[in-house]
Amino acid sequence: MRWLISRLAHFVAASLASLEASNGARIEPMARGYAEGPASEERFEALERGDSLVGTRPPQRAALYGATPDDPEQHFIGWADELDPDALFDAGKAWGLKVVRRSAG
Question: pTM score, two decimals?
Fold first, then answer.
């Protein structure tokens, strides 16, 4: 029985590698147990159809967090590409600044 399971696992791995090579998709490694069931079957079918799952995550932006005179606790100040953290700090308008990647939505 172990031999059959081992051969089946080898066949599935080889099939997935072939699909990945043919359409440029990549299957992320997952712990044993998660590689079975509906999620893996759905991913396998998506690869067979040639579906691309790249870009399924929401876009992210650099968010600026820090403290201000109005709110001394750290909070969201704005998007880092729209503000100048150095200018805010130098003017004493914000301190304890940090930039964190967050969903833009």
Answer: 0.47
